[in-house]
Amino acid sequence: MPARLLVYLAYFLASSTHYQHTKQFFYDLLENPNSRMKAYFDVFMICLVMASVFLLIYEVDTPLTRMDMLFEQAIVAIFILEYLLRAWLYNDCHKVIIGYHEHTQYLKIPFRSTKALGMVVSKKIDYLFTPLAIIDLLAILPSYRPLRILRVFLIFRLFKLLRYFDSIKLFTEVLASKRFELFTLLIFLSFVVMIGSTAIYLFEKPSGNPQVKELFDAAYFTIVTVSTVGYGDITPHSTGGRLVAMSLILSGLGVFSFLTSILVSGFNEKMHVMRENRTYSELKRHAHYVIICGFGRVGEHIATQLAKDRLHFVIIDTDEKNVQEAKQRGYLAIQADASKNDVLRNAGINNGATAVFCTTGNDVVNVYITLSSRYLNPDIRIISRANQEHNVNKLYQAGANDVIQPFAIAAMVAAEYIGQPVAFEAIQGILRQENQSGMEAVAVLPGSALVDKSTGELDFAQRKLILIGVISSHLAHQRHKNRYRVNQQHFYFNPAPHFVLQAGDLLVLLGRNVSIGHFRSQFPGKKHRP
Amino acid sequence: MKRIAIFGYSIMSVAVMTRLRDDKYQLLFVGQDEQEAMLMADQGFTSQAIDFRNDDELKAIGIGRDIDVIFCFFPADSDNVFLTISARALDASLTIIAVVDDPESADKLLAAGADKIIDPHEICGRKAHEMLARADISTILDNTVFGQHDLNMAQIEIPPGSFLQNQAVSGLKLNANHNLILLGVVDKELGNGLHLAVGEQEHWLAEGDVLVVLGTAAGIRAFKEEVARVSGG
């Protein structure tokens, strides 16, 4: 019966959305590095830890009031709650039970609740012995009155800060990554201390040095000397002792130089990761942004335009020089290979990124990045650069929405300039939105006052706007003249005054930005983004 | 018919010549050596190899005489600067269009006398941004005005004595009367900037003003004829 109840409970929790949501909430609060809630919670906990340590210092020469005690108890209660919640979040007990249940079903062996509970407890014990869980426990235990002797261990609460400061975490990571070198150094240091202590004891004790009465004094002298502190409370009197002291000083210098170099190299190795993480953290603050793969001349111009529009973007380039250049301009940049799935994932191709520009000077790389981006996000907009005309179709096949050929476009510009330079420059000026005017597409959204209105009724001239045309896929317009097929839609150039607008149409308007903005505000609707 | 000389073999020169081949221009490719000239000749273009550093050879191909436009498409900016200076010295009215590799060379080319600088990377960057920021507009213009559809842009200069002189821009109603959209007017006395047809101030047309319009080839032709006829009569 308890076995059935246990299995029922496990399956109940697995299917309970309320339980999942609750657990997700606490995961976001305590563990999820991408959660804003966690950031706030960390700050709150840092304040609590600092407050509790200040209280400990205050308590040294001032008795605590009832309010202070209550405050201390509230802090401990929060620490206990946090400790239990982290233990709960560490793993899913119901999954352990379900796994064990399925295992017994498959092998047709009896389900034993004691074994299932043992597996659950074993997993939780694993958590209890993790370094951070031990620190959490040490921060709580000394508050227990029968264990007042442990009160001094309250200082361990400061170690709790490890959880909340990324830079402290980084320091521990550096120590962990260099554990082999540090361990080697520790062994060497232990040998030096052991040999030094013995030698000092053997030289000083027989020479009648009153400061070295036992081996502990020799060990104390050795450590103080090796660490290059040299208090001077114990000094060698014999020649042999002085020679040993000299050797210890030189060894100490060597040891600390070695230790410094280990830590510096550890930080150097982590520096790249640190910088990347900072870029990713910055990116996470933006809801929408663009990924630019390749910061050559084309990428640079795209970035300039996006920066002018105050749009957020991140640059990915393998070339260190290009990345430095981008950073000097104040752009977010990552030195990485954008064709790697992990790089694109970390850059947020499935989170905040709305578009990807593949603008390297190498068509092979552009095809590969396009393919990777499309594979990772089937809906994202991809604009790719093709340097050779025969690669245009390959980029479309790889999943690009638009392909740009720099030399073909430049040739078009050059050729158009020959015929009608004034008209061409005028159109280019409009496209560049010079003189605070430009051409914009304004959407006719369902429910908007524009729906069922004729273009004649809207009197664009009065609004200081020019209606160039209407983009629509609506069948009702098909009887109108000046119709040009563009992709899956039609462009109705210079629509007649009796052209009646439908929901989903796009008005192509020319005018000053202020006029277009005012028109939008009069007929509320969002700027169209395909 | 305009005579155009394209200097230097590159993707750009091939693309420009291919694009202009359909129009009624007389094209001449000028290579630095016989091999370049042969490559272009194989694609059906009139080609010649000369030493562009020699003014006599430039004169021989018609610069200063009957060449109206030159494209400087050499890979090295220094070559393009040299060619621009040489050509400008030979013909002050020549239209010179030069490609630039290093953006810093743009000012040097303009100082040397180039009329238009083409920076393929900048154009590509702008185009890519346009595709993202104003995708609809970009697509429409690419498919119509710069594409295969019969929708064109045109510049129409107001000739002396034209019926358009002293008319208010707002009174033209080209959209209703000629199926043309008047984008704006370039008043050369005030510079080369486009004054939108819906500006704050009314613009009164004068001789030499340039109307920038969008419309079908037939519409543009008819309007041009009307402007020419009335001014003639």
Strand order of the largest sheet of chain A: 3-2-1-4-5-6
Helical proportion of chain A, percent range? 55-70%
| Domain unit count of chain A | 4
Q: Mind telling me the C-alpha Rg of chain A?
A: 35 Å
- The spatial strand order of the largest sheet of chain B comes to 3-2-1-4-5-6
Q: What structural category characterises the helix and strand content of chain A?
A: alpha/beta
Whole-number tally of structural domains of chain B: 2
User: Total number of helical segments of chain B?
Assistant: 9
Query: Any guess at the CATH architecture of the largest domain in chain B?
Result: 3-Layer(aba) Sandwich
List the helices and strands and how they pair.
The complex is a heterodimer of chains A (530) and B (233).
Chain A lengths: L1 H14 L1 H14 L5 H24 L6 H25 L2 H15 L5 H16 L2 H10 L16 H8 L1 H12 L1 H26 L10 H12 L12 H46 L4 E5 L3 H12 L4 E5 L2 H9 L3 E4 L5 H6 L6 E6 L4 H14 L4 E5 L6 H7 L3 E3 L1 H14 L1 H11 L5 E7 L11 H4 L6 E8 L10 E4 L2 E5 L12 E7 H10 L8
Parallel strand pairs in A: 1-2, 1-4, 2-3, 4-5, 5-6
Antiparallel strand pairs in A: 7-11, 8-10, 8-11, 9-10
Helix pairs in contact in A: 1-5, 2-4, 3-8, 4-7, 5-6, 7-8, 9-12, 10-11, 10-12, 18-19
Chain B lengths: L1 E6 L3 H11 L3 E7 L2 H9 L4 E3 L5 H6 L8 E4 L4 H14 L4 E5 L5 H8 L3 E3 L1 H14 L1 H9 L8 E6 L16 H4 L2 E7 L7 E3 L13 E6 L1 H16 L1
Parallel strand pairs in B: 1-2, 1-4, 2-3, 4-5, 5-6
Antiparallel strand pairs in B: 7-10, 8-9, 8-10
Helix pairs in contact in B: 4-5, 6-7
Task: Compose a concise summary of this entry.
Chain A has helices at 2-15, 17-30, 36-59, 66-90, 93-107, 113-128, 131-140, 157-164, 166-177, 179-204, 215-226, 239-284, 297-308, 320-328, 341-346, 363-376, 392-398, 406-419, 421-431, 455-458, 513-522; strands spanning 289-293, 313-317, 332-335, 353-358, 381-385, 402-404, 437-443, 465-472, 483-486, 489-493, 506-512. Chain A has 530 residues and is an alpha/beta fold. Chain B is of the alpha/beta class.
